[in-house]
């Protein structure tokens, strides 16, 4: 129950930052690399450097997901995480590669 409450809080904070939308419309600008996209689209939920929020929650460092799974996650979203349909597979691949370096 406690975890659910925390996640809802993050979701709300995320919605406020991203404009109250389930579908995040962030679109990478020309020349953005994986780190730039991560900083703009992901860090407010997953923390700078993938360190997560509140310690372990939403931590991405050492994620067991492979690059393909991360790309899928970005493009399709999760149970709570919004989908990023405007991040094309090429850019999603850059973000995934960046996450794997964290
Ligand atoms: C609004 C908050 C939010 C944003 C923005 C967000 N995420 Fe997530 N993310 C979550 C939540 C919550 C989960 C876990 C539950 C789920 O799957 O929905 C998650 C799970 C993940 C996972 C799976 C965790 C694992 O260990 O494999 C990956 C990978 C991921 N996110 C990557 C990203 C990337 C890359 C971005 C930026 C393009 C991003 N997220 C943006 C909230 C967010």
TrEMBL record:
Coiled coil: none annotated. Keywords: Heme, Iron, Metal-binding. GO terms for molecular function: electron transfer activity; heme binding; metal ion binding. It comes from Candidatus Thiodiazotropha endolucinida. This is Cytochrome c domain-containing protein. InterPro entries: Cyt_c-like_dom, Cyt_c-like_dom_sf. The keyword Metal-binding applies. The keyword Metal-binding applies. Residues 29-102 form the Cytochrome c domain.
